[in-house]
Design goal:
With 487 residues, this protein is mainly beta.
Amino acid sequence: MARHWRASLSFLIFVFALPLCTSAANSFENTAIVRTVELGGALVHVTTTYAVKALEDGSSVYTLALGEQEHAHTSWLEAKLKGQSALLPLEDFGYHPESGVYLYTVELPKSLDANGTANLVVETVQTHATFPWPQEASQKDPQSLKYSTELFVLSPYKTAVQRTKIRSPNPQVHSFTEPETIDFTTDSVVTKSGATITYGPFYEIPPSATQDFVDTKQKQISVHYAYDHPVLEVTKLERTAEISHWGANLNIENNIHLHNAGPSLKGHFSRLELQTQAYFGRPAPHMFSGVNLLLPPGVHSAYYYDLVGNVSTSHLRPIPSVPKGANSNAHSVLELRTRYPVMGGWNYSFTLGWDSPLEDYAGYDKSTGKYIVGIPLITSVPTSVVNEAEIKIILPEGATDIDYFAPFPALSESMSTHITYLDTIGRPKITLKYRDLTDKHAGTIYVTYKVPFRAHLQKPLAVATAFISVFVVALAWKRVDVRIRRK
């Protein structure tokens, strides 16, 4: 599960996790915790603001705690100070069995003196946290999802006041949990205003990152809401980036296996109903028919086909390449339309690829003699999650001294050889595997390598040798008499 934090060594988890949990309550106090949950389809964005106060001088490391349920759905986690864009260093200390929580530490930019305060903002992206309810729907039916989470935000520190706000993308909220016999409050536990449901405020909550608190005080809450867009999952992404020095080209090809995770279609599919909905401009909310993808500037020769063949309903609107180092948000736009409407529970597999000028991504370091190429990790389908991703980077034949730097650790990494036409010894191939990727993971993989002069000559020599071999064989064949008897 890819996240934006540094993975620590395993022995550090056992050495430091217990002292971290037991001594954390003596360093800080939460004067307020406000959590905001932005409900969606495949992705749920959660923002938690901690107003913290230091209890002793020199406090600089704040400890976060995630419950097992929250941790299982969290695919991205980052922390920063309120009003600032710079991310703070995060350290993962893994699961703490005695407390039943997962612990992380955030390093503040400067130490706080006693009674010093700071506002810490923690943003997470949750995947697979919603599910369709009901689980089946006809073409005419609306789409509704259900989201479940825990009521209290766990923390190893005492909390003065805490609130949780859950915002639905649609004011049509069918139902939500109204827990009873809740401690830490004398007011109404839950209120609703428009599309926002607020739980709390809860006062004077003791350190909650303990197994006893989770077992006796923690409650489950759920929200059932309408959602008017398809719920998309990329069950598997196979992405290949091939670097060619002879063609000065970077080819990127994506094999995408798309799944509509909305309610399964109940009954048969009606083309007449589809045309009727299109005529009145009210398509079924759980139907996926296309999306606009943002591609890099300078792309050309884009291709898009599925198992049947080329799909001609797509359209590419390219823009020229931008200078290196330019701070531009310009993108080429690919208007991608599926061959058929993808209803809930249906799958659609297709291949999407394009070529780009290599000079837009590559540079050369004269001091080391290495080429440096930056390759985009993914091209995300908006509002979707990539369940499994396999990223392959194919380097030029003869490349040596290979290093690569991914924006975050992969589940597995490997080096192998890829052999294709006109190759002699094959090309080095880097393979990275990830899981539960979102649009937050759209980083860049930097690859450095050397290509000796003799390696540049391998391909033309191989081509020349092949042609010469053909001529030699033809010449020898013409001079050999294969007749049984001469005339």
